[in-house]
Design brief:
By secondary structure, this protein is an alpha+beta fold. It has 2 domains: 59 residues, no CATH class; 181 residues, Aminopeptidase, CATH 3.40.630. Helix content is 26%, strand content 29%. It is built from 6 helices and 13 strands. The chain has a 7-stranded mixed β-sheet with strand order 7-8-9-10-11-12-13, sandwiched between helices. A hairpin with a 2-residue loop joins strand 4 and strand 5. It is globular and about 55 Å long. The C terminus is likely disordered.
Amino acid sequence: MTVAVVFLQVHVTQDNVGRLMLFGEGGPPHSLLALHTPADETQVVALYLHGKWWPIGEVLKTSSKSRHGLLIVQSVMERVILFLLSQIIFGVMEKPLGESMYFSAPSALEYGKILWQDGEAVGFYTIKKKGSLCDGCTGQSYLLPVLDTVFVRTHWRRNGLALQMLQDFCTSMSKESVLGISRPVSTSMYGVCKKYLETHKEQRERLYEVDAPGEWSQRRNVWLNIQLQHRPAHSESFIAFIDFHCP
């Protein structure tokens, strides 16, 4: 059997079919059959779903008109799409050269939203909920909601979609006085935060870059970080004094 992927044809053989674990460490042992190129097993080109092979691009599409905008991940198929976006699309296919950041495989209980546009999954974000376990080893729980991952596919960037997801995160957690963004924060995400906080001044004292579980000693105000990155050289000592006295 041969699966055609755009202009690439890949023969289905025992040597280029593998299994992908759908959930992260400690999750249920559910896996997906994946077809990869003969030369590189990281280059996944198709998944075996509903009794047939589907090219990755087709899995990310929908014919449902109700799927538009940011929708909470609920069904098994939506979990598969979240996995594809975080591990295959970002992790391999659209990862910038020299990029060292990666996303851990989403857990079975991960709270996330997929961004749908023109019948296609074009991005997502995930949240570590307040009170959820940081990992399966320490027993520590997050002390605040944390925006853990944000991703927009290459073709759809520079359209304000990451900004839309950050705003959705902040407004959906309206009852929380403090919110976190998981550290490290990428340069591009700082740019998104800067745009958002420039027009939403009321959020400047609310948004923090954090390490798990989010104790005050593990938080650093995002707006303050942005100001420090753009400070004039002559004001260095003054800003350092302000930073020292922030919680």
